[in-house]
Predict the 3D structure of the following.
Amino acid sequence: MDFNHAQEYWNSQAVLEAKKSCGVGYQNVRSPCNVFILDTSSSLGKDGFAQMKEMFSIIIDEYATQDIKENVAVIVCGRHTKFLRHYSSHYEDIKHSLDEVEFGGSSPLTAAFFLSLACVKYGGDRIHRIGAFCVHPRIIFISDGRPTSFTNLASAFVEDSPLDETENDTDHLLQLTRSIGKKTPIFCIPVGRNPDMTTLEFISGQSRGGKIVFASEARQFAKYSLNIRTASMLSFTMDNDCNDNERILTSLACKFPDKIFTEMDQKDIIDICLRKYLYQSVSSMKDEIEDKTESPHEEKYPQMPRLGSRVRRGRDWRYDDHDNYGPGTIVSHLKEGTLLVEWDNGIKSDYRFGTKSKCKNKYDVQLCSEPRILVSELIATGCLVTRGKDWIWGSQDGGAGNIGSVISVHSSGVVFVRWQHGLISNYKFGADGCFDLEISDPFSPEAIKFLQDHVKKTPFDSRDGAQVDVDESNNCTDGNSSSTINSLSEKNSESVKTSSFDSVNRPILHVTKGKYFKNNSVVENATPDIETDGPTFTCAMNQWWWKDCEGKWNPYSREVNERINKCYKRDPKSTVIVAIKDQSLLFSYRVVMAKNQQINQTTRDISEIKLVTNWSCP
């Protein structure tokens, strides 16, 4: 059958399973819900199949020891793709349900996720409240992340082969999991002889609060509901920022003076407090945003950045990995000093940008000129567009060839666009079979200039604390623009001189070696110790470097280096996606540490990387 018929078939199966689940009923109505998707296909290998069963058993055994009775549903995917158990807390029966499962067959993982809709969509409201936290049903996906076609039902009985894995199959899986993940966290546990970490990272990273859980972390992961309950009992958790680890640990000690928490429990509790936004009801979050936004696509404050401007996390960021370390798009002005941003991973929330209240001059985000790169979507918020084949709107776009930025995409096939001259309007992109727009090449000179103009034309007072990643010297088109930039630079110099300690440009204290601190010796004409948050880099222990197209070695930024090292420490064979600037442009790269390579996610070009473990530079 074709894709559409396969989609209809598995959707209908999910609806039927939801009805069966209602007949069976909850075992514990007031408990969190977990949907296990277990890959039993031959691509795992026999050792991988055994590892999958072991991970499943570890988590179920841990659930059985807790006073929170987790509801568990089980779906298997392989020779047979079906529900093994609907929601239940009969853990012994659940654990032994795998005794009847055959190893082998293909990997129609997309079909298994369609079936999960019976639990997370069609089966009613499964949100469980723990204190002030709303705990959504979570999907626990134990697999090697290598899908095969879900459109051929007969292929399930054919043994897996790498030749059966196509980009289309992966795209179908990512599209579905992206949709499910908007409300449902997806936790991926990699198993098998050769798990596809790229696919598993995309699935978990694009979901609401999901993450990769490695085999060594499985037992701790099973305690997550217990730690959510503990976090919900800390008095300040939902009312304050909770961006101070010591405050959280102090509150924990005061609330539970006689209880001992392991280091891993403490880490989980801190993580939950820092990511409290994940435990709001999605519908209430949407209502809250809509209540704040009288006219969602109105530029209310001319001194704030334009809608459609691209941003990254800023100097006062306090939301952990809300942005998944990627860029986003400004889609509304909520109030003075507050922007509504939709990140490229689909999460949408409000952030401070020069708020004048008690959080004076706080910048959660900073402007950037990094384009939106489509993965498998047809269109998305942040895309650049021009008039398309069905354009009938005259000069609304300011003239043929002018570029606009997409600020909202609706499932009906309608999108909202902000054009260069400021007009915001809606257009068809698929509705009634019409395409008023076409996607613009994000790396064309016109697109690059468009994004850089969004940064440069933001009123300068609003750019305090917002780092700008455009090379202004290379973008002066005439004498006037050059003089404007020079005047802005002069103004910036003055602002640096008068900036307070609250500003991003903090004063630098020069300290002579041996003067204030103990040193074995004082070296004449030694470079003073300097602490700075500026763009300069020092050659530190365990510093990663990348080679540019000119053969020059460059250090990764402090934040990126810490992220790579964290992944390297966890698993030297893992990969991680990072963003780095090359020739004044930001690109996304996949860092493959085991091969000392980084791969450009857009061009697929490969360049060298290396780890320097001493204080020297390459």
Q: What stands out?
A: The mean pLDDT is 77. DSSP finds 14 helices and 23 strands in the chain. The CA atoms of residues 198 and 575 lie 7 Å apart. The longest strand covers residues 328-335.
